[in-house]
Specification:
Elements lengths: L1 H20 L3 H20 L7 E7 L7 E5 L5 H6 L3 H6 L2 E4 L2 E3 L9 E6 L7 H22 L6 E3 L12 E7 L10 H17 L4 E5 L1 H7 L4 H13 L5 E6 L2 E5 L10 E15 L2 E12 L6 H12 L7 H7 L12
Helix pairs in contact: 5-6
Amino acid sequence: MATRTVCQVLQRRFATSAAAVRAPANEVRGQRNAVFSREQARQRALYPRIEKIEVSMQGPGLDGTLLIMNKGMSTPLSCARHLTEHHLTNSALALVDGEPWSLHQPLTHSCSLTLLTFKDSDPTLVNQAYWRSCAALLGQVLETAFKDDFTVELLNTPEVPVTLGAFCCDVVLDPQLDSWTPSEESLRSLTRGAQQLIHQDLAWEPLEVVPSVALEIFSHSRCKQEEVEQKAAQSPKGTVMLHRCGDHVLLSAGPLVARTGLCSQYEVTAVHSLGRGPWGLQRRAQGLSLPLQLQAHHTVWRKLRQRAEKMVEVPNTEEVNRLSPPDSTPPRTSQ
């Protein structure tokens, strides 16, 4: 325990000095990717020989279907490939023995598996993962939207229910930008950045790691290192969940949907000032999105957008649970 504490102190000191030097953004992304890939390879090497597991499929038309898969290698998406094109293209999330599970996260034991879509009778878990994914996408856009001359510090992404009408991402920009007020063209530019990532149909790759690995990945960010320690302390297993999308590595409070291509209508609607915080002038970027399977007519979208422009007041955990009823779902309207 003492050794780990010393290690964390040293890493925080390194983060402070690194911030002062201000490493180029592409160098930081490269370092994070390298550590992520190294740990991903190490975890895969834990299964040197192929062992078989039994996966019992659950869901309409699938009850009783048994798949023989590879332990530590096969994922829920691998299982979907053995089913139909519908399951492969429409699945967004999975339940493994009743636990929310990314479609790209390897299966490590025999289990029951349910593939979830946006049109399920109870889409609560999928909606939560989708909103979380949209916020992650917004953070990725913000991190790369400014030149290397300006720093961007992504703060802890608030968990907000779909019923609040907008997802959000808190950020601190370079002090040189404190007087910057985003114009409509700025918001459109951020929206175009998100749409480019959606068009690339990138996977959100999950990776559960011990805190020391996450601290190394975020060695250039004191803010993220504190977030790593908080999430590890809150986790029953003492681990943290990372995701990688393209060259962007992020911390996540829960599973994300399978890929960016599941997003369809997506718009960055506002950037609000939250005032001064410990890291500088905090801003809350907000957006609105609907998944590929649930489209809205332009008149409905306009009304939803007006609502998404208003600043989201982040509720506490108890309020999130209260505001997320079992039947909460985005509007199901067609074009």
